[in-house]
Write a structure and sequence with these properties.
48% of the residues lie in helices and 14% in strands. It is an alpha/beta fold. The chain has two domains: 126 residues, Up-down Bundle (de novo design (two linked rop proteins)); 267 residues, Rossmann fold (3-Layer(aba) Sandwich), CATH 3.40.50. The strands form two sheets. The protein has an eight-stranded mixed sheet, with helices on both faces. A two-stranded antiparallel sheet has the order 1-2. A hairpin with a 2-residue loop joins strand 3 and strand 4. Helix 3 runs antiparallel to helix 4, helix 4 runs antiparallel to helix 5 and helix 5 packs antiparallel against helix 6. It is globular, with a radius of gyration of 22 Å. The protein starts with a helix and ends in a 6-residue tail after the last helix. The N terminus and C terminus are likely disordered.
């Protein structure tokens, strides 16, 4: 093939080991669209809506990206308002969830100092609040004390959960917000009888809007506050609380599980990224004293005492052989660790399994269900089950002749 034909081919959408690549010359934009297409099978987007917006976007133009996804999100939110007003709660719940996802996608390339980011974060939060209010039992908007601040989040109970349910705290990394985590994990937790807590942590972008930032070690303090909050609730089983670190958030989850024995299970990176940073520091900094903290973190994963799950895709950011080596060293130290590798043949090979997120999340939450000893009687496959029962009861009251 000639060089010119090869260049032409690179400009067209393609499918590789990491999934669908819509704009081959624009990797980050393509990754976001890949994530959205994967979210469609989770009910958090529609394929046609995604391709419609993508067809209008000028690749590489951040304003074009913002305008198309924001416009779509506004349209879906308007429809959600109408559906709610008409009592079409199942439809409006779907629309609110998609609106959350599209508002967050619109903000993907905004600078943290851009006032439009705060606006879009507010719209996503409002849509998410409307979504959780349509769940049965009602989802809760919660505020958790953290120093002189509050950690804002959502707490959701499964309708199939026992009086004291097992729970999972899900965390992301960097710009991930509580809305992003709600979109990703709520249906999987509900379906398996798990309560779910997602919060905006000090590492999240929303903490930096109009502020100078927060010290890095405050993240672990925040995670301890979240665990304290769950332990304080009367509806949580204190002996069955897990931590899920999604993507690069696995590094923070590793540090939390290694330093706090109250976690019952953890999905993390077993200290992989900490080791990489240590290797870099040792090789690039002259002052050994500056590396004391990192040096003390060698084999951070070896400190984990609870069951631990690590996931990696064949096309992930990390080198598979390096993570396998870390896994073997942790096993040799007696860590109850399991490693799951997703290949291109089964899909889920991209970072965070964004090419097929359902596959990865099914594996994670099935593993959590087993480790937290959740029986089938504690699960509920349909998150709208309680809402549907309530609607049917209302209909029977209106028309008692149709009751049985």
């Amino acid at each position: 093939m000639s060089d010119s034909k090869s260049r032409d081919r690179q400009q067209f959408p393609t499918y590789d080991v990491g999934g669908w690549v819509h704009w081959p010359e624009h990797e980050v934009e393509s990754a976001h669209l890949k994530r959205l297409l994967g979210d469609a099978q989770e009910g958090a987007s529609f394929v046609s809506e995604c391709f419609l917006a993508a067809s209008k976007i000028l690749p590489g133009d951040d304003e074009s990206w913002l305008n198309e996804w924001r416009g779509l999100a506004h349209n879906i939110a308007m429809r959600a308002h109408l559906s709610t007003a008409k009592g079409h709660f199942t439809t409006s719940r779907s629309e609110w969830l998609r609106a959350v996802n599209y508002f967050r996608t619109a903000a993907a390339f905004l600078d943290p100092r851009d006032s439009r980011l705060a606006e879009l974060c507010g719209l996503a939060e409002s849509s998410a609040t409307s979504f959780v209010e349509l769940l049965r039992p009602f989802g809760e908007f919660v505020e958790i004390p953290f120093g002189n601040r509050m950690l804002r989040g959502y707490f959701i109970r499964s309708p199939g959960a026992p009086a004291k349910s097992p729970a999972v705290l899900a965390i992301g990394h960097g710009r991930d917000t509580k809305e992003d985590l709600l979109v990703r994990f709520q249906s999987h937790a509900i379906a398996r009888g798990l309560s779910l807590l997602v919060v905006d942590l000090p590492s999240n972008a929303v903490w930096f809007l109009g502020e100078d930032g927060v010290p890095g070690d405050s993240l672990q303090d925040a995670l301890r506050c979240c665990l304290d909050y769950l332990l304080s609730r009367d509806d949580i089983d204190r002996g069955r609380i897990a931590l899920l670190g999604d993507g690069l958030g696995g590094s923070d989850a590793t540090r939390a599980a290694a330093t706090d024995s109250r976690w019952s299970a953890v999905v993390c990176d077993a200290g992989f990224w900490d080791e990489l940073q240590l290797q870099y520091a040792k090789g690039s900094l002259q002052d050994r004293d500056a590396n004391v903290e990192r040096i003390n973190d060698i084999m951070l994963g070896a400190r984990i005492k609870c069951p631990c799950l690590v996931l990696i895709g064949e096309d992930d950011y990390a080198e598979v052989k390096e993570l396998v080596s870390l896994y073997e060293r942790c096993r040799a130290r007696g860590v109850p660790i399991e490693l799951k590798l997703f290949s291109g043949e089964e899909t889920g090979a991209a970072h965070r399994q964004i090419d097929n997120p359902t596959l990865g999340r099914h594996f994670i939450f099935d593993w959590l269900k087993e480790r937290l000893l959740i029986g089938e009687s504690e699960g509920c496959l349909d998150p709208t089950f309680g809402l549907l029962k309530e609607v049917v009861a209302d209909l029977q009251i209106v028309n008692p002749s149709r009751s049985t």
